[in-house]
UniProtKB/TrEMBL annotation:
Its EC number is 2.3.1.225. It is found in: Membrane. The keyword Lyase does not apply. Pfam families: DHHC. It is a multi-pass membrane protein. Its main location: membrane. GO terms for cellular component: membrane. It is an enzyme of class 2 (transferase). This is Palmitoyltransferase. It catalyses: L-cysteinyl-[protein] + hexadecanoyl-CoA = S-hexadecanoyl-L-cysteinyl-[protein] + CoA. It comes from Frankliniella occidentalis (Western flower thrips). The keyword ATP-binding does not apply. The gene is LOC113206920. Residues 96-222 form the Palmitoyltransferase DHHC domain.
Amino acid sequence: MFFLVKDPCGIVCIILTYLAVFYADYVIVKWVILQTMQNSLWGSFHMVMFNTVAFLASMAHFRAMCSDPGTVPLPHSRMDFSDIHSDCNGGSDQEDWTVCTRCETYRPPRAHHCRICKRCIRRMDHHCPWINNCVGERNQKYFLQFLVYVGLLVIYAVALVMASWMEECPECPMDITVRQSRILHTVLVLVESLLFGLFVAAMLIDQLQAIFGDETAVEQAQDLGPYRPHKPRMALLTEVCGRTHPLLWLLPCDTLGPHSSYQNDSSALLTHEV
């Protein structure tokens, strides 16, 4: 399902994100690898590897941006909320369901309304303008992948730039204009990498703490406290990344299985429709 939020701020952030990735790729390939490693096999190796990481980062960002984060289905007709505390329409499995007055529907536990997406999102962590989408049940894996790959891209770029500065390069062009252009571009990409690196590191730590603590950012803000049974860390990661081999968690592809949660939500909502 293609999911796109029409938020001007988010669209600007998306453009800035892709410009930053493409500029870093341009500088590393043209002004670092082709200038300092043009006659070395290491140049070909680094070009392939750096572009592979950049491609995976772009794909993970695209999936996080365009995937349905876990929107709660809307009812087909007006709903009767008089039985919200009744046991006859949901039993113990639905005792924690609440009512969203904006969507005018029931929402399952851990679902929250996003004022930007204008929908309730299952296990909503936060709305991220850099992906112009909510980080929720069905796209948190892609968001984590994006953070990891951007982090690797930052480390890779900084290492290549520092190596190009520290090692002498007799094969580099001696033209003063070319040398000044290379220095200028590498300084700019180094500053960009450091800024993005700090941001990504903070976000990745925050996401991992939320996953291992089994508490989203929204739940932390509401100060609900721990109310779910303790689970192993691998089980918590599996809930986010899917029940596949951990190596497949690195690929920006569907590994979460069928949308059973949506089917359960639809079935539950039908029992409340008038």
